Each structure stands twice: as C-alpha cells, then as structure tokens.
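Support request from a user on the community tier.

User writes: "When I paste my structure tokens into the form, the page sometimes reloads and wipes my input. The last time it worked, I copied everything first. Here is what I submitted, just in case something in the input itself triggers the reload:"
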C-alpha cells in the first residue's frame, strides 16, 4: 500500500520531470522535484509559522498564568489549554510538516534504489500514460541509459565517503555541510528566545542547592541544546547517505529557509506591534498594582481614623458622668 500511495507517485513525478530535461539529468530533475514539493507544502508552512507567532504572542499570558497558579501544575495546564483553545493555537500542529516529509524521504530512498540497482522495475512502476513518452520509453527499453549524475560530473548514487576504493567526494561533503547549516538556520528562525541568560550548568547548580527550577526555563535550554546538536547529528547522517538524498535534503532546507524568511518578514510589523502591546500591558499591570496598593493604604488609614473618632467621645462622656 505504501508503494502504491507514496512510492509510485513520487517515482512517476520524478521520472516525468527527468523526461522533460534535454539529455536527461537526474540531479536537475531532483532539484525541480524538491522545489515543487516545498511549494506544495506552502499552505502548511504558513499555518505552522502562524502557530509559532501565536505562541510568541501568548508568552506574556503564559508567564502570568505560571505566576498566578503558584506551582499548581494541574491548574496551570488547564488554564494553558483554555488559552490555546481561545486563540486557536495547537502546540502539536507544527509537527505536520515532519509527518509529511518523512514518508517522502523514505519513498525517495526507495526510488533512488530503483534507479540505481533495480532498474528492471522501472516498467512495472511507470504509469501507463507515461510509457509512450519518448525518453521514458527509451529508458524502459534500455534501463542502463539512465543518467544518474548531476551536470554530468556528480554521481548521485555515491556517498561522500567510500571505503572500496577509499575516496572522498568533496561536492557531497559540501552538500552535507549545507544540509547541517540550513537545518540550524531553520531551527533558529522558529525557536523562541531563551527567557534568561543563565547557562544549563548554573540552573542545575541552583537546583542542587535546593532552589526550585522554572520548567519553562529548563525547556527553553533543552530546545537550545537540541538546536545546536541536531545539525551535527544531521551532518554525520548525510555523509553516509546516497548523494541524491543529500541533494534533496539540502535543497529542501534551503527553500524552507527562504519560505520561512519571507513569511516571517511579511508579518514583522505584526511582531513589533505584539512587542509594543506586551510592553504596554506590563506597564498597565504595574500601574494597576501601584494604584491598588495606594487604595488599600488609604482604606486602612480611613478605618484607623474612624475608630479613633468613635473611641474618643466615648471616653469623654464617661469622664463627665463620673
């Protein structure tokens, strides 16, 4: 079922693009395929970034809820979910792109394996209406004519490092580094700023000394560590994958960075307004707190004066009677 629903459509889209390129170039076809996939995901990307912006907008409210609940995790969770529901925010919606990308990545790996080592399956996987297209018909007749290079020099079926014989493909290494760098930029664009400048070591030391740690602060630090660790892990993964997958992932990340930059830039004015509104809200809260404190002091002073007035005449009358 996975082959019929995911692998075969990707295979036919890719081979269709390949047939339209003069002379056939698998690398160029893969770049075009990747851009088309990212453009198709544009609405989902936009929704995801709107979720990110909405979460940033709600940060002051989340901080206020944390202070008001005073460590009651159950009440805090309930009020947070109510706030999310009120503003139409779903913290889990942002994983939608990952859930779409993962099957594509797995299917693309299988498609590359078909083009490299299972070319006898090309005829079986090709849709009937494509079999009469000239370049595809020739490829079915002569599978070994498939051009697995990009621009005539980069073999996309090879890995960055090969042991037999020992060799290093500099271009694939650069692509792997590009995948890691763009992964970091993508994460940086959408990760909220850390609420404090404390290091993870300092927070752990305070916890060891008996001071209660702020869970949101800890979560932000873990996310920051992951944001730095994930690109390094991705680099080691990429250098051990076929060049076609590395090319796909790098181009996909690059297009994603441009998409996110454009969408976030379009709403930069909104983000400035959010920051201004947040500052004004804090100032108004401080003024209200000061006014309430003064009002409370005034009420206490009035009560004291009233008691004094009630007591003094009573003592005076008692003295006159005596």
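"...and here is what came back when it finally went through:"
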């Amino acid at each position: 079922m996975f082959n019929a629903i995911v692998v075969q459509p990707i295979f036919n889209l890719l081979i269709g693009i390949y047939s339209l390129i003069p002379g056939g170039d698998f690398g160029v076809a893969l770049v075009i395929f990747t851009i088309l996939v990212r453009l198709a995901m544009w609405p989902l990307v936009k929704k995801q970034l709107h979720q990110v912006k909405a979460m940033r907008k709600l940060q002051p409210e989340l901080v206020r809820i944390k202070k008001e609940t005073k460590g009651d995790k159950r009440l805090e969770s309930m009020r947070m979910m109510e706030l999310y529901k009120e503003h139409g925010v779903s913290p889990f919606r942002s994983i939608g792109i990952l859930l779409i990308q993962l099957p594509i990545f797995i299917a693309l790996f299988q498609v590359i394996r078909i083009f490299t080592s299972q070319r006898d399956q090309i005829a079986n996987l090709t849709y009937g209406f494509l079999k009469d297209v000239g370049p595809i018909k020739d490829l079915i007749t002569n599978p070994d004519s498939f051009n697995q290079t990009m621009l005539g020099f980069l073999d996309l079926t090879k890995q960055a490092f090969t042991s037999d014989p020992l060799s290093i493909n500099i271009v694939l290494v650069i692509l792997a580094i590009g995948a890691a760098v763009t992964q970091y930029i993508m994460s940086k664009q959408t990760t909220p700023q850390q609420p404090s400048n404390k290091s993870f070591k300092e927070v752990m030391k305070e916890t060891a000394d008996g001071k209660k740690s702020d869970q949101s602060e800890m979560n932000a630090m873990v996310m920051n560590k992951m944001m730095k660790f994930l690109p390094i892990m991705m680099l080691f993964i990429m250098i051990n994958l076929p060049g076609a997958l590395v090319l796909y992932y790098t181009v996909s990340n690059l297009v994603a960075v441009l998409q996110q930059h454009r969408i976030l830039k379009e709403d930069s004015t909104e983000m400035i307004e959010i920051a201004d509104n947040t500052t004004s809200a804090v100032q108004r809260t401080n003024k209200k707190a000061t006014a309430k404190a003064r009002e409370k002091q005034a009420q206490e002073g009035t009560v004291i004066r009233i008691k004094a007035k009630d007591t003094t005449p009573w003592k005076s009358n008692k003295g006159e009677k005596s």
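Agent notes: The reload is a front-end session timeout and is unrelated to the input. Strands lie at 149-150, 154-155, 161-163, 166-168. The mean pLDDT is 75. Escalated to web team.
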